[in-house]
Amino acid sequence: MSSQVLLSGGNKWYSYSGIVFGDVSVPASINMVLIPNTGLRDSLVSIQPFYGKENNTSGGNILGIEVKLNDVTIIKQQSAVTHAYSVRNQTDFNIFVPRQSKLEILSLNTSGNNVQERGCTVLGYYL
What we know:
4-stranded antiparallel beta sheet; Jelly Rolls; mainly beta; about 45% strand; 9 strands
């Protein structure tokens, strides 16, 4: 799980989850990014999830993403992937994050896709 890193100019920050996956014991969601406090300024934040090759789409076994702001879910999406690799099907999210907010990004999955690779990148612009 990744946290916030300030860029050298001081007006932007970023976070990378890296590639995240589990095994059959992993629960239905995997933490990718947790930023307990986004800082003293409001931010415009771009979230870009990515997924590896889909391994199981039967029975609703589809990867997804959940974004929480101060423990409130503001984005929750699980949609089918039609290409072998979903680079073309990824969805970027742009959200407003008030200062001193807790930002959490989770991967949604089911028991049929726990070992599937996934991750996200986050870039915040202080306003």
